Amino acid sequence: MSQAPSPESVEALLPEIAALIVSALNLDIDAGEIEADAPLFGDGLGLDSIDVLEIALVISKKYAIQLKSDNEDNIRIFSSLRALGTYIASQRSQ
Amino acid sequence: MNAVPLLAHGDSAAVFAWRPDGPVTVGAYLADVRALAARLPATGYLLNLCHDRYRFAVGFAAGLLRGMTSLQPSSQSPETFRRLQDDYPDLIALCDNPADAPDLPRFAFPGLDDAAETPAAGDIPLIPADHPAAILFTSGSTGLPQAQVKTWGKLALNGRAEAIALGLDARPQVLVGTVPVQHSYGFESTFLLALHGGCAFWSGKPFYPQDIAGALAAVPQPRLLVTTPFHLSALLASGIDLPAIDILLSATAPLSTALAAEAEARTGAPMLEIYGSTESGQLASRRTTDGAAWTLLPGVRLEQTGDETTACAGHVEGRIALSDVIELLPDNRFLLHGRHADLVNIAGKRTSLAYLNHQLGAVPGVVDGAFFLPDEEGPDGITRLTAFVVAPGLSARQITVALRQRIEAIFLPRPLLLVDKLPRNSTGKLPRSDLQALYATKVEGAGHGRG
Are B208 and A46 a contacting pair at CB < 8 A? Predict the structure, then answer.
C-alpha cells in the first residue's frame, strides 16, 4: 500500500479539485464555497451517482487515476472534498 | 392452469451466471433457488434489494416458488420504503448488505449449501402464467409511485421477444450490465434475457470505466454490454482499452448517431438500442447507425388516436398509453418525436414539470416559481433543470435545502435563480418561449453552467 499523504499535500490539492468539481458539474457556486469536510452527497452538495461518474472522469483525465468500485472505499472516497483529495494524493504518490 | 417454466435453458450444465469465482450452471442455480425457497418466509411480497445480480436472481426465483411477488421501486429512499411498508405490510426485504433497509423486516441472504445435488435436466420449476411475479414502480407524472403489475407469463414473453429482436436466440451472449437489476431496463435486459433468452450474466454491476473493462474481461465471448447513453459516453471518454465486445445495448434515453458511430468504431460491435417504459415493458429496438426508425418487438402492437399512442398485445400488460410523440411507419416501424411537453426524463428518471412546480410552490416563503428544462446541449450528456423562483427573503441555498426534502436529487435545479417576477402572460401562463428568453439572459448570458 501507499503511505498516507501529508495533510499539507492534501490541503494544497483541495482548491484545484473543488474547481474541477464545480466546472465538471456546472454547479452554481464558487469553488471556494465547497467546505473541505462537508458531505458531497445528501445534505451537503446533494450530488448523485451521475455526478460521481462525471467527477471520476475529470479526475482520471487530470491525475491519470482510474477509480474502481470493487474496493469498499467508494463511499468513503466521495464522503467529502478532503476525503477525495486524500485519495487522489495517495494514488499519485504511488 | 397455463404454466411457464422458470427458464428456457434446455441443459442443466449450461452456464447461467458468471461470478468472480467462476461460472454457475443452470443446475447449480436451480439448487440454490430451491435451497433459498425452503428457508424464505413466504409473506406475499419480496423486496429484493440484493446488489449482486446472481443473488437477486436466486431470490426472485425462490420467491416465485413460494408464490411471492417481487416489489421493485424506482428509488431506495427511506420515504419510498416507508410508503411500501404502508401499502404492503407483510413485505420482507431480502438483503445481501447489512446496511440496507435497516427499518424494514429483513431476511439476510443466507450462505447456501454448495453440496446440494444438481437436479436432472428437465427438472425446471413451472410457474403459473397469471401469477403476479413483480410489481415495478414508476415515479409517474404526479410524482407519486404507480404500481405496474407484471404477470409471470408476460415477463417470460418479454425476455423471449427481446432475445429474438437482438438476434440472441441464434447466438446467446454473456450479459454485462452497468444498470441495476431491480429497475425495468436492467431487469429485462440482464435477468429476463438470461432466463428466457438463453443468455448468461455477470453477477456484478460495474460502474466506473475501469470496472466495466474488468467485468468484460472476467467473462468469455460473445459478450453483450448492457448500458445507458450516459455510462457509454463516460466509458468512451475515459479512453481506456476495452476487452472485445460483441454487442452494445443502450436504453433509458435515445442515443445520438454520433455516439453510436463512435462506439461502433471503437469496439467493432453493433450498437443496438431498446425503447420501452416501465409501464409497457420493452417495445422496440433499432441499430442506431442504421437510421432513426424503430422496429417493434415480436408480438407488440401500437395504436393511435390523435397524437396519443397506445401499446398493446404481445408481452404488454393490457393497454398502455405512451408518453412519447410517435409517428407510425409501415412494416411495424415507427419514429420517436420526443416526449409530451410536460414530462421530464433525466438519466432515466421520470417526473413532470407540473409535479416539480407544485413541490417548489409548497416551499414556505416561495411566492412563485417554475422549473425549466433547457434544450439539450448534446443528446448524450445529462441536461439539468433550471428553476426561476420568486422568494423575497430566501436565498437560493435555503430553497435548495428545502427542495431536497421533497424531490429526488437528480431533479434539483442547477442553477436555481432568484428573480423579481416570472414572465407570466395575461392568462397567468408561462410560455416556454418566455422562459427560454429568461434562461438566455440569466444563465447563458451570465456565463453560468453550460460552456
Answer: no
